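Reviewers asked in the last cycle whether our approach scales beyond single polypeptides. To address this, we selected a multi-component target totalling 680 residues and predicted its structure end to end. The input consisted of the following lines:
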Amino acid sequence: METESMKLRTFKAPRADIHLIEGGSGPDLFFLHGAGGITADNPFLNALAEKYHVYAPLLPGYGESEECENIRTMLDFTLHCHDVMMALDLDKPIVVGHSMGGMIASEIASVIPNDVDKLCLISSAGLWLDEHPIPDVFAAMPYELPELMFHDPVAGGAMMTAGADFSDPVFLQSFLVQNARQLGMAGKILFPIPERGLSERLYRLNAKTLLIWGESDKLIGQPYAEAFNKAIPGSELITIPEAGHMVMVEQTAAVVNAIGKLG
Amino acid sequence: MKFTWFNLMPWPHLPADFRQKHKSVWVDIDSRLYDPVKGHDVYNDYMDMLEYADALGFDGIGVNEHHQNAYGLMPSPNIIAAAISRRALNAAIVVLGNSLGLYNPPTRVAEEFAMLDVITGGRLVAGFPVGSSMDINYCYGDIPALSRERYQEAHDLIKRAWSDPKPFAWNGRYTKLRYVNTWPKPIQNPPPIHVPGGGSVETYDFCLDNTYSYSYLSFSGYIRAKALLQGYWDRLTERNEPDESPYRAGFAQTICVADTDAEAEKLYKDHVSYFFNRCLHVAPGFADAPGYRTIKTIKAGALSQFSPNLGEAAHMPWKQLVDEGYVIAGSPDTVRERMEDLIKGLNVGNIFCLMHVGDMPMDKTKYSSQLFAEKVMPGLRNMWPDYADDSRFWPTPLEKRATPGPISDRKPTNEGA
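The resulting structure, written as structure tokens, was:
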């Protein structure tokens, strides 16, 4: 795995200057990260880069991307991410989104259906089922997250908290700032209920769609995989065992292989 | 000095093992702990206390807004304010306040505050809080990163609704109204405005920009409040404001008065413990929704008043609570001395006196309040002689005010119902 192949660079989009992780060779793949964000050394992105030319923009407020007060609504998020796609001059890239990123990817594919013909939603947010309420990550304490995010919370938790020392005030402050920037931004489409009417727009989507779900996803569980599968005509659902919400972290190779099905 | 007798209205029937058995006093508290029949007495007792404080000569009687909260039983403080205003005839009615962004449309606040001001003959102090994260984000679903923008727009709309003599159109981001034409208008236009804040840098500036009084409603006492209020005064100095009137700021303090220091401990210790142990048991996950505090404020080091360190008070012995200023308690002399430290140390002219604490019963509350009014307040009255004429932050009521007229001497009954 060649981590040096992924580069972080700044990029000017119409609404905000953002940071973009880019690298690899092969067909273009546009990746939208989840509420937790993503970094250039992410093993999943690097595995994708062996088969694809990966473009992974960081949403405003994530990493070094500047905050953007003018992105408030679902439509703003959708258009901003589509703006980035256009500014990168991507012609029908494979669009992949995880969790919140899946929600935005579904919106792009529904609102501007002619620009997306291959779509992969991994543990995607965007729907709400009253019988299966999604746990409130905004009120969760950091120590409660591994249980929600991973099939193996011990291993996942160790990964999440590597280098974290909450008793150090300097670390705590930088953690709170990062949390406020990232989850503050995410909250605009996920708080208090992670649903902004997507189900009423999915009929417009005409991309070949692959749904990838961790079998033991405790955040956005299997009923959501089934609901997406039902709502998107011709979609295919691939369930990956021994994986939770962070399926591409816990079963990287299996997810990369599955995306290969989109061609 | 202006002393406001302030009641949070805690539910006094939380079980002794509440802290151990329940996750949070706020947001997702078990509703089976509430009993509406007991609640009937609780509300009426609490309103009696507020009215009694008016009779004792407190300058103001105060209420505030909380939701899904067992230490604050006033989702609508305006209802309590209206109810007490017919028997409390002299004190300012301090509503601290209405979380502006939660009212849809926010002209509702302009209307209800105008009603209160007119009913009371111009005795309203209008509180304009953003609201706590628990209230506005977790209970009312307001999106944290947008709360301040919504608040600011609501504020501008309410102020204009009071001041503009003609109907106007309002094309806001959060509120669109073709005809804004608030009836009635307040007697005081605008009423004095107090803004409860928790250390947000933006709120300091907002108060200074608009000549509003900044209130710090802390539960951890005046010693720990020093840094936060100093931040406000430093900001005022930095901006070269024309005066540093102590009435530009207010502070909430738990106060218990008895004949002697020992009697205060004996009488009030358990009720104070009830407050810090049971009432302030807030799940840390609800303390601060990400995005609620601005980056600037977090970097300035302001954490939620419900950050883990408040939990320490739950286990503190009485002496430590008193020594560290969480509670000002003791004989009238002791309390007066500590109050002088508070008033001078924080440079505040408005004190929100938390005289009813936790599950304190009526007789003790009255006893403590009466001692404060008669033996403590007079000695503190003129601590700011240079600003005695500063009327910007306190109501100027009508000279001639109506009183409730006679109806009959009937008692409540279900007969004929």
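The longest strand of chain A covers residues 17-23. We regard this as preliminary and will revisit it once experimental data from Aim 1 are available.
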